[in-house]
């Protein structure tokens, strides 16, 4: 049995052979010869036939392996058969250009670390057959936009079913008190109307009624660096205000056992509050709100570790990981993602809702920020994303983590693929 790394090298040789061939086209006999040379196979390795399978039919093991890699490249949309020819394949025109979406049933570990894996797949193909306790799902699904993103969007009419179907297997595996955090859009409008869609309300009710999730909080992610919109209803017809937030919904399957702990997300006290605590607290008595709030001479006098965060997340788009992702994507020649979150958003929820070692997942991975935050925080992670190019760019953000490995098929992705 060959070592895994040799098998992976062989895969890369097969991919590279097509990329280097005249007109990117190769017949199988030539392919076998090129691979033998590139991989340094012994001359008899391509000739010796051994009994394989139950029937014991004689086959050459190396050629079979090469043909198997050929099939994987076909599944990846990298190569295709030349019409009407037997055993002749060529690079597809789209290889490295159009977004390559995983077909139903395709599951390929795009890259992995000691703590987690990013799988090129539709989420349903992976989570549908998962049997592993999940502590948290932090995800930002595609929004039901009228003008679809490059990666595709479900329409509003099917949206509730789409999200419930995607999350059902996650919720089935959620440990008691585990959480689901959903970042969606508030800015979906009724057709030809400045009125907002009620899809958000329908979705919350469906997640409760169909999946048994309880709403713990709806937190606005306030982002003043959002471009001004909705253009038609705020900038052209001046009937709406420009938007500056997206809602983030936090659900759990068991509020009585929810595993959140705000001590894991404490913020630094302001200088003013520190001074107040150090001075022994308020030096006065006051009553506000018809007696609901009282200040006594020792109020706020106890030294505490930090400030409990408010349930509003204020973050701009600026993020070093987004910057790094863009640079890597440009260098490799893959398109950048059109809807990246700053990593600090999943980072906050992972700290608040999980403990080291817990499994954190993201069904709609994009540039794998949930995975990245989980990796840095010592949580295990599993993320699916159906566009191969996004995974290629994201892989670069994980290179320095222990155990990093990338499937060689990913090296064939991009205009400047190696
Ligand atoms: C809003 S983006 C997520 C962005 C991500 N949070 C980030 O910061 O990069 C949604 C992602 O879901 C992916 N997607 C859509 N449908 C999918 C499916 N059925 N399975 C897996 N990924 C899917 C899209 O390709 C897109 O990258």
UniProtKB/TrEMBL annotation:
EC number of this enzyme: 2.1.1.-
Xref: Gene3D superfamilies: Vaccinia Virus protein VP39 (3.40.50.150)
Pfam family, one: Mrr_N
Domain DNA methylase N-4/N-6: from-to ranges: 134-394
Originating organism: Cupriavidus pinatubonensis
Top-level taxon of the source organism: Bacteria
Protein name (Swiss-Prot/TrEMBL): Methyltransferase
Keyword DNA-binding included in the entry's annotation: yes
InterPro entries: DNA_methylase_N4/N6, MeTrfase_CN4_CS, Mrr-like_N_dom, RM_Methyltransferase, SAM-dependent_MTases_sf
Reactions the enzyme catalyzes: a 2'-deoxycytidine in DNA + S-adenosyl-L-methionine = an N(4)-methyl-2'-deoxycytidine in DNA + S-adenosyl-L-homocysteine + H(+)
Keyword Mitochondrion tagged: no
Protein family (similarity comment): Belongs to the N(4)/N(6)-methyltransferase family. N(4) subfamily.
Domain spans labelled Restriction system protein Mrr-like N-terminal: 20-95
Enzyme class: transferase
């Amino acid at each position: 049995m060959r070592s895994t790394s040799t098998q992976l090298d062989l895969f890369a040789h097969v991919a590279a052979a097509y990329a280097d061939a005249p007109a990117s086209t190769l017949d199988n006999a030539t392919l076998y010869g090129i691979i033998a040379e590139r991989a340094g196979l012994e001359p008899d390795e391509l000739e010796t036939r051994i009994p394989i399978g139950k029937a014991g039919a004689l086959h050459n093991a190396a050629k079979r392996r090469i043909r198997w890699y050929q099939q994987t490249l076909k599944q990846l949309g990298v190569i295709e058969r030349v019409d009407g020819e037997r055993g002749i394949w060529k690079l597809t025109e789209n290889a490295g250009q159009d977004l390559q979406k995983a077909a139903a049933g395709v599951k390929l570990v795009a890259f992995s670390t000691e703590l987690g894996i990013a799988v090129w797949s539709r989420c349903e193909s992976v989570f549908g057959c998962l049997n592993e306790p999940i502590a948290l799902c932090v995800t930002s699904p595609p929004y039901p936009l009228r003008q679809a993103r490059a990666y595709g969007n479900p329409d509003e009419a099917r949206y509730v079913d789409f999200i419930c179907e995607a999350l059902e297997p996650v919720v089935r595996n959620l440990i008691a008190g585990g959480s689901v955090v959903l970042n969606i859009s508030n800015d979906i409008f009724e057709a030809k109307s400045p009125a907002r869609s009620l899809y958000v309300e329908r979705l919350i009710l469906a997640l409760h009624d169909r999946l048994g999730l309880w709403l713990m909080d709806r937190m606005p992610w306030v982002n003043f660096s959002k471009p001004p919109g909705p253009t038609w209803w705020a900038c052209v017809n001046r009937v709406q205000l420009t938007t500056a937030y997206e809602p983030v919904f936090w659900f759990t399957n068991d509020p009585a056992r929810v595993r959140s702990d705000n001590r894991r997300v404490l913020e630094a006290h302001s200088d003013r509050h520190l001074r107040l605590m150090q001075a022994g607290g308020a030096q006065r008595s006051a009553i506000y709100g018809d007696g609901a709030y009282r200040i006594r001479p020792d109020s706020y006098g106890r030294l505490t570790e930090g400030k409990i965060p408010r349930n509003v997340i204020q973050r701009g788009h600026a993020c070093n990981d987004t910057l790094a992702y863009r640079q890597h994507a440009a260098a490799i020649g893959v398109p950048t993602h059109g809807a990246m979150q700053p990593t600090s958003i999943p980072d906050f929820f992972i700290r608040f809702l999980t403990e080291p070692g817990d499994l954190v997942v993201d069904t709609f991975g994009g540039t794998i920020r949930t995975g990245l935050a989980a990796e840095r925080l010592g949580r295990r992670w599993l993320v699916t994303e159906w566009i191969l190019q996004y995974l290629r760019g994201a892989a670069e953000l994980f290179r320095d983590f222990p155990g990093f490995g990338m499937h060689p098929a990913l090296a064939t992705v991009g205009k400047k693929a190696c």
